[in-house]
Amino acid sequence: MARPISRLRLGDRFAKVGFVITLGLCAALIESLWSVNAIVERQSAEHGVGHGGTEHDRIIHDLDKQRKFRAERNMYLAGFSLALQFCIIRICQLMQESVEYEEEIKALTKAVANEGGITSSADDKDSKQQGGVEMTILKKKPQEKKKD
What is the DSSP letter of 146? Predict the structure, then answer.
């Protein structure tokens, strides 16, 4: 899956769209924080003065509770979406790097294979185990000096 994304340069395209989405999520998060703060201040100011207990005051209080709940919900959603956005961007970057490293490994392997004097006997190999993948590094045999 990483190769088609790398070939089509979807990571770069997603980065531009991701930046716009990130800005929108930041704006939503800031707006939600501002709304929650304003509602809390209004409730504390009303509570400090005292409740008259009229029907109108109770309706306003219930509406403020609903607004506060919605603002808090939006704040949590925006924050979680922002965290996911950062994860998606990083995953795309890692996939791109993975493909670039694979291509570099292939190019280096071809370059080493094209050089002369490479042996593949078991004595001339260094094997390393990394992450469950065995990597074999071929050593060149030292060329003997010609005696004249």
Answer: P
